[in-house]
Amino acid sequence: MNKVEKIDKFFVASQWLIRFVWANLVWMFLIIIGLGIFGFMPATAALFAVTRKWSQKDIDIAIWPTAWKAYKKAFLETNIAGLCFAGILGFLYVDLRIVFATMNGLVSSLLYFFLFFLFAMTLLALVNYFSVYAHFIYPLRGYIMQSFLLAFTSWKTSLLLIAGFGVAVYLIAQVPALVLFISGVLPAYWVMKVNLIRFQKMQAKMTAQSAESVA
Questions:
Q1: DSSP string of the chain?
Q2: pTM for this structure?
Q3: pLDDT surpasses 90 at 210
């Protein structure tokens, strides 16, 4: 590798680092102006709107205008979806606590693990929700249903997502200061990259089925 190639690679890496840091800071700012609890869902949807552009090779987009536009558009709908997910997770959590505290034996153990599985899959569906919201146009119920379908029917994709989150958690655990710079954008970029492959296969399959029905 000659000196020019090294400089080019360093330049590309530094550009990506700047994009990641800026997008992460924008995400955190949008959460704050939404008073935290009301800002998380639309801010994360806005972050996914940015990472979707990156995943589609549109890497030179203006991050703030793209995120701000998506944030305003998504504010109400994503918060309603967030309440739906919170309700499901809260219900499952209470059930887990009740089973753990009051029941004994093999049946209760099986029930506990089944509820824990549903809880974990709901969290995975929540992660999928943001990429589905960024890529497709559905009614509110459609976004949530598609998110759960992805979680339950695409095990390979789900394992890749979990592995990516594991790497992000490990990096942040090793260097806590990274929370300010990659805590949101790195997982979002990974989820969008992985799910976009799945989405493209889904769309190709639907296109082929439509062509067959017309023929």
A1: --HHHHHHHHHHHHHHHHHHHHHHHHHHHHHHHTTTTTTHHHHHHHHHHHHHHHHTT-TT--HHHHHHHHHHHHHHHHHHHHHHHHHHHHHHHHHHHHHHHH--SHHHHHHHHHHHHHHHHHHHHHHHHHHHHHH----HHHHHHHHHHHHHH-HHHHHHHHHHHHHHHHHHHH-GGGHHHHTTHHHHHHHHHHHHHHHHHHHHHHHHHHHHHH-
A2: 0.87
A3: no
